[in-house]
Sequence to fold (88 residues):
Amino acid sequence: MCLGIPGEVVALLGDDLATVSVNGVERPISISLMRDEGVDVGDWVLVHVGFALSKIDQKEAELTLDQIKKLGRAWEEEMDAYKETAIV
Fold:
């Protein structure tokens, strides 16, 4: 299963890249799909296959993470996959 998961932008890396934190795991992701909207440190974004797709507010991010965690094994598999991936 591939889920879109909320991540908080913790650093802007330039060249359309940012570091996001998802459940304490930090990874670089592409923010190229959000050039027109712009992304700043502290923003929450919906991350799917290494790309930020849209901004979401913190409350929605927290609610979504809570619901995803209730998926149990699917959440664990998603986090395992997230830990092993990186855009370089």
Remarks:
- The chain has two helices and five strands.
